[in-house]
Amino acid sequence: MSNPQPLKVGITGGIGSGKTTVARIFNILGVPIYYADDRAKWLMGNDPKLKEEIIAAFGKESFLENGELNRTYLAKEVFSDEKKTKKINGLVHPAVGRDFFDWFAKQDSPYILKEAALLFETGSYQQLDKIINVSAPLKIRISRVLMRDPHRTEKQVNDIIDKQLPDEEKNSKADYVVKNAENKLLIPQVLSIHKSLLDLASGQSEG
Q1: What residue spans of 70-163 are helical by DSSP H?
Q2: Annotated binding-site residue? 18
Q3: Which of 24, 133, 136, 187 could be bridged to 174 by S-S, CB 3.0 to 4.6 A?
Q4: Do 19 and 11 form a contact (C-beta atoms < 8 A)?
């Protein structure tokens, strides 16, 4: 009898929530993780089909002479124009979706994690079995980002937060919530979710 497919679990959280830190704890527990936001950056510079689509939509200036993505040009083009933001997302998200399923087909584990900032906003959460949202108070999130990215201003961080779904909404849509505040220990929360997902996966394989 062939092994059942791993459960597909999404892990998300707004900027500064600490979702990458939480994902790393799962990784230490042996859970394979697909980092969607990192792969998106990689695919924009390396996936031939996506590169062609970006050039068709935003012009040859989208890439430097050495073939690398011209991030400065694209950021200027896209960031303040909602139509263009939607356009580039409409190219990048399907490419990430294809790449994720190629990666997923090679995994052999009770469950895997797909880490992405915009799981709910892009609708890609619908392709997953369970969702974990990493939640943190707004003040803490802003101070974390300003410490991590000293080049950003508070206004820029707030602009990014405004483009993401509010925490309360993400928490209500998620199957599990990790509270990443100063008075909450992360590891016990992660271990509890890990056990729950392993139980779920073993129940699925017995079913």
Answers
A1: 71-79, 82-104, 119-122, 138-148, 154-163
A2: yes
A3: 133
A4: yes
Asked whether 32 and 38 are in contact (CB, 8 A), the reply is no
Looking at the chain, the domain(s) classified CATH 3.40.50.300 span: 1-32+111-199, 38-106
Q: Per the annotation, does 16 bind a ligand? A: yes
Calculate the CA 48 to chain-centre distance: 22
**Is 21 annotated as a binding-site member?**
yes
On whether the 1-32+111-199 domain is CATH 3.40.50.300, my answer is yes
Q: Strand pairing partners for 35? A: 115
172 labelled ligand-binding: no
Distance between CA atoms of residues 181 and 48, nearest Å:
42
| 38-106 carries CATH number 3.30.450.40 | no
Cβ contact 41:65 at 8 Å: no
The model's pLDDT over 39-72, given as tens digits with 9 standing for 90+, comes to 999 999 999 999 999 999 999 999 999 989 999 9
Rounded CA gap, 10 and 128, in Å? 6
Are the CB atoms for 144 and 180 separated by under 8 Å? no
What's the pLDDT tens digit per position in 121-140? Answer: 888 899 999 999 999 999 99
Structure confidence at residue 182 (pLDDT): 83
